[in-house]
Amino acid sequence: MTEADLLADFIRNARRAVVFTGAGISTESGIPDFRSPGGVWSKMKPIMFQDFISSYAARREAWNRVFNRTAGWTGAAPNVGHFAVAQLVEMGKVSSVITQNVDNLHQDSGVPEDKVIEIHGNASYAKCLNCGKRYEIEDLRPRWEAEEDITCVFCTGLIKTATISFGQPMPGKQMALATEEAARCDLMLVLGSSLVVYPAAGLPLLAKERGADYVIVNREETEQDPYADLVLNVGIGELMTAVMGKL
Asked: Using only C-alpha atoms, what is the Rg of the chain?
């Protein structure tokens, strides 16, 4: 059997699958990952959440990165891997997509907003840290160009991209939803995650503990490979295209 046959069998037998995605699914769209050589954090230091809160200079640097697209997290298009996941959701095979990515590409590929659980936030818009009001990035550009400290027009709270920064609390609602989905699924399909960032990386293990089949698709080995029922060290797009042709 081919690798696509093996994965297709797991998906075919599942009634309630969950897809868990990391940077590896989006690198095929040209978005850099975080930790590998040449990744985002090898080129620039992350801005800690507490520094963003306490320092205008840190906030200014954060907004410079947003408007100069230094990190490269936005502006890309979904690839065939994203579209395959969207098709699995549409077919009713996948109940939700838990993603560590902040690039909005699952939504752009057609996954309904309420089926995407973003545990590390979203870089395509901003939010007030105090009242939660959403702001579109481009609407904030004039204030950045004027070198203003970008604050909420309603409550004067600080505005930040809707990503979860280092040192920032994980989003409680999203983590609760992700935990529930992991506990209820009968197949956990990891696509493109190194599975080293916790608490997110604990979700696939929870699914396995609750009796779900566990499949990891990632170009490199992960620490969780010994717990998986199937590990495929291949590219996601080509594999998922072949899998969809067999379902």
From this structure: 19
Cis peptide before 46 (omega within 30 of 0): no
Please give the model's pTM, rounded to 2 decimal places: 0.93
Residues with catalytic function: 120
Long-range (24+ apart) CB contacts under 8 A made by 110-115 are 110/83, 110/86, 111/85, 111/86, 115/89
SS3 sequence, 31-59? CCCCCCCCCHHHHCCCCCHHHHHHCHHHH
Rounded CA-CA distance 89/108 in Å is 14
Sign of the dihedral through C-alpha 98, 86, 34, 161: negative
Question: pLDDT (tens digit, 0 to 9) for every residue of the chain, 247 residues total?
Answer: 899 999 999 999 999 999 999 999 999 998 877 655 555 555 678 899 999 999 999 999 999 999 988 766 677 899 999 999 999 999 999 999 999 999 999 999 999 999 999 999 999 999 999 999 999 999 999 999 999 999 999 999 999 999 999 999 999 999 999 999 999 999 999 999 999 999 999 999 999 999 999 999 999 999 999 999 999 999 999 999 999 999 9
Q: Which two tokens stand for residue 214?
A: 């566990």
